[in-house]
Amino acid sequence: MPSHFKNASNFNIEGDTHIYTKKYSHYGDQPPKRCVSDLREHIAAGALHNSAERCDAPKCHPETRVAVQDELVSWICDGDRDCMPKRMMWLTGPAGAGKTAIMGSVAETCQRKGILGATHFFSSFSGSANRRSKRFLIPTLAYQLVQHQAMPQVAKRILSAVERNPAVFEQNLEVQLEQLILAPLRAARKHPERSDWPKVILIDGLDECEADQYHDSTQNNAPRRSKEDDQTEILHVLKKAASDPNFPFRIVIASRPEHAIKGFFTDAAKFLTREIFLDGKYNPDADMALFLESKFANMRRQYHLSPSWPDPSVSHTLISNASGQFIYVATVGRFMEGSGGDPDQLLKQVLGLPGIAASTNVYAPLDALYTPILSSNPDPDAHLSIL
Q1: Edge-to-edge strand list for the sheet holding 250-255
Q2: Are 144 and 48 in contact (CB under 8 A)?
Q3: Fewest CB atoms less than 10 Å from the CB: which of 25, 47, 218, 341?
Q4: Gap between the Cα atoms of 338 and 248, Å rounded
């Protein structure tokens, strides 16, 4: 049909005008504000790591759980350099092992570095009831991506998805993941600023997620879901995200080693997942071993060293020399990272120090370590950065 307005200009249309289209939506460069409001209504705001509800949540004190935090942040930032890169990390251990404190501290570290994508802290005993339900997980993650300044193109696509399908919040987790997260990421995959995107999503307390019921509980034969059903559903959805090549985030999940969760990570997600198990009580030797492995892993990545470097006996020797003093291995780590020399030579220098028993003076091994460091570099500022 030829246009009635071909080559026309400088004219007005007056009177009642009706325009019919099969598909039409227009809101300029930004979806309407009500899309943000709709999304906001379906999140668990208290589950964010920096929410008011979590103002008294535990955090790691300085110099505690340093090894675990360093290993998590190192993996988040540089895990692609590992020989067998993983997309998921399971931080696990018994109640009271410090999982939530570690996750809270890691979240703050990642936020300072600009690499935090989103967080969700489940809680079955404190805070709002929506922190116990799976239904708020995906919208809460999506809302935080919308707020991230480095991802404006993704944000617009998430809000457009809410505009197209306002009922998405009542659909299952897999549909929510696809429409609110994966599809927007896929559409923006070639965006030039993708290198500035955040790197990680942190989910704490998965074992505290309780079951949502969808049937009339007054009916004797009504099927009831268990919390394990909902927790496993969440894990399968997160596995789908981690397996998608357009999903740029690593995922850290913290929980107790409950049977269903442990079964998932040792079976369905075995090849996608690294595991860190926390002892139920503070064990300085185990913490030092994990700290050294984290530092050595960083050096292997940085200097392209063999996966078997250094020999396992090295850690045993350093831990023995430390005599229970964590600051000893921390100083070794800073010395090797800050000296800028050949890692093998630096390690030989440290291992060549005389072994000194700490039975009479707990600081004797540390004194023996400090002496060559102070004498190896005349720059006082360099000493301060190491010591």
Answers
A1: 116-121, 200-204, 250-255, 88-92, 273-277
A2: yes
A3: 218
A4: 31
Per-residue pLDDT reduced to its tens digit, 137-165: 999 999 999 999 999 999 999 999 999 99
48: Cβ contacts below 8 Å, ≥ 6 apart: 54, 119, 120, 121, 140, 144
Which residue, 127, 114, 106, is CA-closest to 54? 127
Q: Give pTM, 2 decimals.
A: 0.71
What is the per-residue burial (b if ≥16 Cβ within 10 Å, else e) of 297-316? bbbbbeeeeeeeebeeebbe
Dihedral, CA of residue 354, residue 312, residue 67 and residue 78, to nearest 10: 120
Secondary structure class of 4 (helix, strand, coil): coil
Instruction: Note the pLDDT tens digit of each residue in 168-195.
Output: 999 999 999 999 999 999 998 877 677 7
pLDDT in tens, 221-269: 667 889 999 999 999 999 999 999 999 999 999 999 999 999 999 999 9
CA distance 33 to 260: 41
Confidence of residue 88 (pLDDT cuts 50, 70, 90): very high
The string of pLDDT tens digits covering residues 303-357 is 899 999 999 999 999 988 887 676 788 788 888 887 778 888 888 888 876 654 4
Using CA atoms, how far residue 92 sits from 206, 212, 310, in Å, is 10, 24, 27
Q: Which amino acid is at 258?
A: E
Helix (H, G, I), strand (E, B), or coil: what is residue 126? coil
Rg (CA), the chain: 26
Instruction: Return the sign of the alpha-carbon dihedral for residues 298, 81, 85, 98.
Output: positive
Distance CA 21, CA 14 (A): 20
CA distance 113 to 118: 13
The neighbouring-strand residues paired with 250 are 200
Residue from 140, 147, 139, 156 nearest 191 by CA: 156
CA distance 31 to 68: 41
Structural tokens at position 144: 């935080």
The answer to whether 90 and 99 have CB atoms below 8 angstroms apart is no
**List of residues 6+ apart from 323 with CB closer than 8 A:** 357, 358, 362, 365
